[in-house]
Amino acid sequence: MACSQTLSGLINDCASNMGGVRKVYLANKTDVSGVTVSEDKVTGISMASEAKFHGYALRPNTASMNSTAQVSQENGTTYWQTLLQMVFSRMETTKRVEVVAMAQAELCAIVEDANGLFWFLGMDAPLVLNAGDGNTGTARGDRNGYSVTLEDDSLQPPYEILMGDGGVDLDSIVA
């Protein structure tokens, strides 16, 4: 049986555009009690009692989110692998403890990109640590710090989150 999809087409977008990630918010997957999707955007995120997302401020040009379709024609499977890469400058105990916690956790994420749009990761399965390191650098100008890559394997690429009226009130779900 053939699969039929309705395509709508896209026009050339003349809006300005910037790459990168401004901020990331992480929560344990078990603390996110529900996600509402309406008209292909996340319009609601419910949290378990007292649970909150926690923010991670990032230096400019140190984080990215990359979604890639993973397709197996032989097996008839398709999913989207999204890698969230973050760099935290300066190796120190506070950051080491957070990196270890990320490595052991099953997470959901809200990612604010450089265009001011918000994206939800962890819809179908939790984000898990894919890679990470701590590096002192060699030369005085090298980065000293940790890098972390979290992986989201979902049926769809990340959903944009509608903020404000009719959408998510970020202040109510962030510590």
SSE pattern, N- to C-terminal: EEEEEEHEEEEEH
Look at the structure and give the mean pLDDT: 94
- Which structural class is indicated by helix and strand composition? mainly beta
Evaluate the radius of gyration.
18 Å
**Total count of helical runs of at least 4 residues:** 2
Number of strands: 11
| Tally of distinct domains | 1
Low-pLDDT residue intervals, each spanning 5 or more residues: none
Strand content: over 45%
Describe the protein.
With 175 residues, this protein is mainly beta. Helix content is 9%, strand content 46%. The protein contains two helices and eleven strands. The protein has helices at residues 93-104, 170-173; strands spanning 21-28, 32-38, 41-47, 54-57, 63-72, 77-89, 107-113, 118-121, 128-135, 145-154, 159-161. Strands 4-1-7-8-11 form a five-stranded antiparallel beta sheet, with no helix packed on it. Strands 5-6-10-9 form a four-stranded antiparallel beta sheet, covered by helices on one side. A two-stranded antiparallel ribbon has the order 2-3. The radius of gyration is 18 Å and the shape is globular. It starts with 20 loop residues before the first strand and ends with a helix.
How would you concisely characterize the structure shown here?
With 175 residues, the chain is mainly β.
Which terms would index this structure?
five-stranded antiparallel sheet, four-stranded antiparallel sheet, mainly beta, 175 residues, 2 helices
